[in-house]
Amino acid sequence: MSTQSVEYGENMQKKDYRLSPRVYSRRLEKLRKYAEQREKSVTEFIENWLDNLEIPEKLPNLLRLI
User: Fold this and answer.
1) How far is CA 37 from CA 9, 23, 26, 60, in A?
2) Are 45 and 35 in contact, with CB atoms under 8 Å apart?
């Protein structure tokens, strides 16, 4: 999997971070197959999913930095 830099907000620097969720192997394999069928890496799939999340107005301002 590749690591990509993403810039959020005006004053934030580009940084790479690692996300390590714990999931059952069955779910990990399902995610890998899903990404492979769409010719994407798991990282690309998760990044696209995160980029398309809508943040409701009622969430604290801290979450708007994401």
Assistant:
1) 33, 20, 17, 37
2) yes
Task: Give phi and psi for 47, each to the nearest 5.
Answer: -60, -45
Q: Which two tokens stand for residue 25?
A: 């192997």
pLDDT tens, residue order, the chain (66 aa): 444 545 555 555 667 888 899 999 999 999 999 999 999 999 999 999 989 988 777 666 665 565
pTM of the predicted model as reported, rounded to 2 decimal places:
0.57
Residues in the chain: 66
Output the six-digit token pair for 48. 């696209």
Phi, psi at 10, each rounded to 5°: -75, -40
CA dihedral 30, 35, 39, 41 (to 10 degrees): -120
